[in-house]
Amino acid sequence: MRVANLDGRAVLLGDIRVLDIASASAGRFSADPQSVYASWSELCEWGEGIDVDRHPRSVDVDRATLAPPVPRPGQILAVGLNYAEHAAESGLELPQHPLVFTKFASSLTGPDAVVQLSGARVDWEAELVVVIGTGGRDIPAGEAWNRIAGLTIGQDISDRDVQWWGASAQFSLGKSFEGYAPTGPAVVSVAEIEAGHDRDDLRVSCRSIDSSGQERVLQDGRTRDMIFTVPAIVEQLSAIVELQPGDLVFTGTPAGVGQGRTPEEFLTPGLTLVTEIDGLGSIRQEFA
After folding, report:
1. GO:BP terms for this protein (predicted)?
2. Distances, alpha carbon 6 to alpha carbons 58, 107, 131, 192, in Å
């Protein structure tokens, strides 16, 4: 099951069509895409297995009209330096505990978006994003996947100049300009991911496309190489923070960011960035 956000309404996403959840369920579930996570188990019982593209009430969809699948999360938590090779390219030691910051919700945008660059040193970071379902406190790692609604794709776009303002890092500000948290195209249920992939070993990649159409692979990693696995992240976060339905957790980026290159490279106007994760699809940003 894939849940997306079309014009502020929760929809099931097929390959080429969408199905309005509230209408198709005769009002059993809310049209509000943020509200579905509070009743995720019931939604899965209803929606898993529906063939959206063949459903008589489904309609065609233009991907460019999709909004963030989780539009108003109560919390966005992000983990830094969660891949050893990324820590090495950053010149930093491996963390002993998850390094956590936030991206403010006003930075969210949809899966296919035009993003205005905030400066000359804006970087890319392809990430697997966890969407919390049941939530709670003190969730043991062995229970974590049962508390997760699904997964989606994110880019943790980062203004490196703002990120490193002053004597103390400003991660949250540097990563929260308008459009700097593209997510989507949908939240894919754990059951659907498991039907075709190993949920603990997903390929995470991104590539750039310049104005001439030339493509370059920028990042190509696997979630099995995370320092802190998805269950470990949920366990350690929930020991401190109460996780709530619809919260987003950015889980870190593999090696290949622009700041870690010699010489450094950053996003430029006219460049397109395509990010893909096994079983989740792709998102696409054009930079202006």
Report:
1. small molecule metabolic process
2. 12, 18, 18, 21
Would you place residue 179 in the very low, low, confident or very high pLDDT band (cuts 50, 70, 90)?
very high
d(CA 35, CA 200): 27
Cα distance between residue 122 and residue 271, in whole Å: 12
Domains parsed from the chain with CATH numbers = 2-65 (no CATH), 68-287 (3.90.850.10)
Give the pair of three-digit tokens for residue 228: 């802190």
DSSP label of 95: P
Task: Report whether pLDDT(92) > 80.
Answer: no
Cβ–Cβ < 8 Å for 277, 187? no
pLDDT of amino acid 172: 95
